[in-house]
Amino acid sequence: MGEVRSSAEVGIVVARKQEFDMTTKDAFSAEEWKTVLEGPPAAGMIVITASHGGTFRETIAMSKAYVEARKEHGDSELLDEVAAANPQMDHTRYHSAEELRESGLGHIREAAALVRSKATPEEFDDYRRFVLTLADKVAAAHREAGQSVSPAEAEAIQQITAALGGGSS
Q: What is the pLDDT of residue 124?
């Protein structure tokens, strides 16, 4: 026969269970996890190809965003696993920056939908923030025409934000 608990005790048990339930890559199939991992580098590549110049610095900035996320280890096991992966995206399969952007935005939308459907709202916010932070760091890595972020990069970041589900973080 089941244990009888007061509503306060049940609340504490539920709060503790939620506190320890973190989403990991095990919540995703291998194909879904690949999609989740492709989201951040897709955002970086979209920004890199948005305007000319600075490719080397911008690529380094993308790698540094991963390194910095690894240093913040612990708040989200899901984000820890994403940041621990080496950013990979086969940009050679695209024939133009436009094709890369459209495909990349599709990857980002798909990754965001997967994370939103399987992770907690907080973990989704962490993933979204990581992708946008990475895009911002890439954009700011190289001054173009006297601006830290070119109009084309700013537009790319707006498109990435929309693909992730709108609003600012």
A: 95
Over residues 67-90, the pLDDT tens digits come to 988 887 677 889 999 999 887 766
Q: Are 44 and 138 in contact (CB under 8 A)?
A: yes
Distance CA 22, CA 38 (A): 21
State which amino acid sits at residue 13.
V
Q: Contact at 8 Å (CB) between 105 and 14?
A: no
Residues (pLDDT < 70) of the chain are 1-20, 53-54, 73, 89-92, 144-145, 166-169
pTM reported for the whole predicted model: 0.81
What does the chain look like in DSSP terms, one character per residue?
A: -PPP--HHHHHHHHHHHHHH----GGGS-HHHHHHHHHHHHHHHHHHHTTSSS-HHHHHHHHHHHHHHHHHTTTS-HHHHHHHHSPP---GGG-SSHHHHHHHHHHHHHHHHHHHHHHS-HHHHHHHHHHHHHHHHHHHHTS-BTTBSS-HHHHHHHHHHHHHHTSS--
CA pair distance 76, 22, nearest whole angstrom: 7
Q: What is the largest CA-CA distance in the chain?
A: 73
